[in-house]
Amino acid sequence: MIVDASASTRRHGALAQAKGLLATLFDQAYRQRTRLAVLHATGRQPHWLWQGQKASPALHDWLSQLGAGGGTPLIEALQQAATWLESRQRQKPAEQQRLLILTDGRLKDWPALVPTACPALLVDIESGPIRLGRAKRLAEQLAAEYWAIEDL
């Protein structure tokens, strides 16, 4: 899971909506004893918060403190996630993987992207009256399923 918490996600309550979705996902993962990996994309570089561990109430502690700010190291996060997923698949070939990306897509431009080896879902958290629609283009390049957060 990649969570974009760049400064642009503060606009029009986008991050607040994403946090609500994440709270629900964390609860479901905890009940189902699902293993998660969470990569926080904010500031200058992405940071791993969780890597392949079972969901835990500690994720809610992080979520309650999650704020937005800084740049959008989303491309770096995508690259790190792809590398981690490939390694994880070699270590645990029977494990079913999925990649969830929460972003408003507010990147200036990005290099050509390669789809991940596992199914991906991009949830567009861009909100407000003027939408750039870059998250949808990002999802297309990643061959990811696309959903706008208000449709969930």
Short description:
The protein is α/β, with parallel strands linked by helices and 152 residues long. 36% of the residues lie in helices and 21% in strands.
Would you kindly provide a written description of the structure presented here, covering whatever features stand out?
The protein has helices spanning 14-32, 58-65, 74-91, 134-142; strands at 2-4, 35-41, 47-54, 99-103, 120-124, 145-148. By secondary structure, the protein is of the alpha/beta class. The chain has a single domain (2-151), classed as Rossmann fold (3-Layer(aba) Sandwich). It has a six-stranded mixed sheet, with helices on both faces. Helix 1 runs antiparallel to helix 2 (58-65). The two termini are 17 Å apart. The model has no long low-confidence stretch (mean pLDDT 92).
Write the SSE topology:
Layout: E1 2-4, H1 14-32, E2 35-41, E3 47-54, H2 58-65, H3 74-91, E4 99-103, E5 120-124, H4 134-142, E6 145-148
Parallel strand pairs: 1-2, 1-4, 4-5, 5-6
Antiparallel strand pairs: 2-3
Strand order of the largest sheet: 3-2-1-4-5-6
The number of domains is 1
Radius of gyration of CA atoms, rounded to a whole number = 15 Å
| Terminal-residue CA separation | 17 Å
Tell me what the CATH architecture is. Answer: 3-Layer(aba) Sandwich
Coarse morphology: globular
String of helices and strands: EHEEHHEEHE
CATH superfamily: von Willebrand factor, type A domain
